[in-house]
Amino acid sequence: MTATAPHPRLTKTSPDVRPAHGPRLPVRALPLLPAVVLLLLFLAGPIGYCVWIAFTDLKLTGQAQESFVGFGNFARAFEDEAFLNAVWLTLVFTVLSALAGQNTLGLALAALMRRASKPVRTLTGGIVVTAWVLPEVVAGFLLYAFFRREGTLNAVLEWLHLPSQNWLFTLPILAVSFANVWRGTAFSMLVYSAALNEIPQEITEAAEVDGAGGWRRMWYITLPMIRRSIGTNLMLNTLQTLSVFGLIWVMTRGGPGGRSQTLPLFMYEQAFQNSLIGYGTAVALLLLVVGSLFSLVYLRLLRTEV
Fold it and tell me: Would you call 107 exposed, middle or buried from its count of C-beta atoms within 10 A (0-12, 13-18, 19+)?
């Protein structure tokens, strides 16, 4: 008996069958190709070039060609007292103006405005947001006029028969920290206003009926429920404050004697005033590392929250 071949129509295999996911992946990736190209061209490219410059002795003037110096610029930075002073002042400026100032004042304004009348909310919000939308240079001149020896603050102190002083000379880092708080609090206020509006009113009313006062409700109910907004706001405020340049430059230019010179101003001085592009770029990379460390800490705290 001879075996009969299966009918062609009954076969399960066909040469036209293609893999389910083979050629579709490149087609799906095509819409992302322009974005990837732009990121490589305008983001990864300049960053990579800056990393290369940080390991060279490139200068603006008096040099035909740069040479590779390895970690020499970074070693020079950690041996430079002016750099270490700039690092310390950057941390002080960030803690005073971002972590303590903008964050705390923004939360307080958002909480108080919930209980205020509509005209008060409109007026307060308009004043705070106006300070935020002002150009940085304009805000710097306003705060310079406020803190200078013949400025508004000393005029008010003399009217109250209190001692006055040259704030931009005696306490420059506190003056620029206050200026950054005045200018940037609106962002924190808006973030916390949105977060507080998401808290169910029933929870707050139940706690008030149980006898919890305002501070206890804030500590045990409000803050735990908006902790993600607090972490996000702290991270964004910190990164923004680390890069503040124009405000301090207009008010003090890092002086007197470098007592308000943060890392962005130190970087600018080395790169463009002293013409040490390689050294200034190395300082910029160290500033990027500081910002990355802050971001990792905040992201870790947000990830491990219960």
Answer: buried
